């Protein structure tokens, strides 16, 4: 719903105070659609370069008002609109003032409508569990509210200044008692200004965690607030509250400038030496960077310990890795209005590893890329040294290390806490968290909409905990990093993650469509599958992921002759011919392979056509892949 359609819900008094004489409510009413379609927020009202664009908007507005007046049958309204269109010419010398006026009105409208829809006593966002809110949790309406409160401060300060001038004049004419009354009124206005400044305090957290798209606007808000404080202190003396607020704003300005350097495109989190990779760093205050000397960003590799010391202001001096193509220029793109430095064709030539503790392997060691530069912001006297780090990366020297390195990355991404000390992760997590991470990883890698259901997850819990009880509740049981990817599974030569990654690879490359359609059972233990296949018709079968082979598939079926369920030997991903099917199904006489396959296929199709319990797809032919699928039974 358009804003103009919701305005009648506001009181008449509110609407009268909302629109100034220079922009009466009639303009807002008759040009509602056109006004809301324009991009007022894109203007920098302090930039004279945007005056021509603002003047074109003014000319369009006047033309539209004249057109509305011409077609209006009401004579009174026609004359009124013609008068308003002539008065709009006052913006001709300052077209950006029109933009500023309309933008502020629209902001106030949005704020009033939100407040009208809010339940009473709505509180502002506060830190959760002692941790700082992330930028994703910051509501952009908070920033709109802060902008409006700054406008109120500016308006109040201007009124105080006007009252002071009137008071200075009346002191010469008025009687002493009258002068005292005027002084009291001025003092009340000053107290109201103090209260307005106090109202912005709950919104100052925005400077520490700005929404990425509003950093430049916040920089302007900070500048306006500091300017208002200077004017108030000049006219009315220093107040302790103003002094504290001034210190906070200066500190928050530095914090905003430093936190505006972000890694827009992360480097790969598993990096092999001697291989190329790229990364992009963006500065969210790009349009405020002072012109002149190009801004050069430098990248370097840092260890986990060096990343921790950054929080204490310790700049890394030891070079732990040789990084090729480690510099890039910060460039502004006028089309996208973004300021980025793209590091292309970076490569790690060699890496210096720290001393490992105990059984820790090289694939558990985490590094990061540190990006640093020196930036001068327009309006600020001295340059700022800003820096940011990438997500943790694991550096390998051989492709065989990639699987274990990816396990380290997954554990870090899934279970790290917000605002942690780099790069601390818990040693144990509840199975409920682990199961969510496994399902998300499976869906993202396979690119499927079907995740892991409770039966699949129960089977995985049985495997990682080495417990075969079907009725066991694993949700609150802790899973350790060692169980995930250090200790081999009982009776196997591989870890849980290595097995699970093989399942993902098999499903992604061979069975994606069948898995997505729900035709593959996949994750099921031997005990459970015998229960499911019990009393099923002859020839019924299901596919399960092999327990003994990485990336293997096993066919469990009801034997036609012996009337019981059997399990074939696992087959890894490859081209299956009809002879392979016979061997996997336990048929020893190769000469009868085709006959038996055809008979079994015909028998199964007859059963499945009459039942919704399963679906068989047999792609026969010596040169074609043969894939077996069945629905969840």
TrEMBL record:
GO MF terms, alphabetically ordered: DNA-binding transcription activator activity, RNA polymerase II-specific; RNA polymerase II transcription regulatory region sequence-specific DNA binding
Keywords on record: Activator, Cytoplasm, DNA-binding, Nucleus, Phosphoprotein, SH2 domain, Transcription, Transcription regulation
Coiled-coil blocks: none
Domain of life of the source: Eukaryota
Pfam families for this protein: SH2, STAT_bind, STAT_int, STAT_linker
Subcellular location: Cytoplasm; Nucleus
GO cellular component: cytoplasm; nucleus
Domain SH2 as annotated: residue spans: 515-557
GO biological process, one term: epithelium development
InterPro entries, sorted: p53-like_TF_DNA-bd_sf, SH2, SH2_dom_sf, STAT, STAT_linker, STAT_N_sf, STAT_TF_CC, STAT_TF_DNA-bd
Family: Belongs to the transcription factor STAT family.
Protein name in UniProt: Signal transducer and activator of transcription
Gene source species: Electrophorus electricus
Lineage per the UniProt record: Eukaryota, Metazoa, Chordata, Craniata, Vertebrata
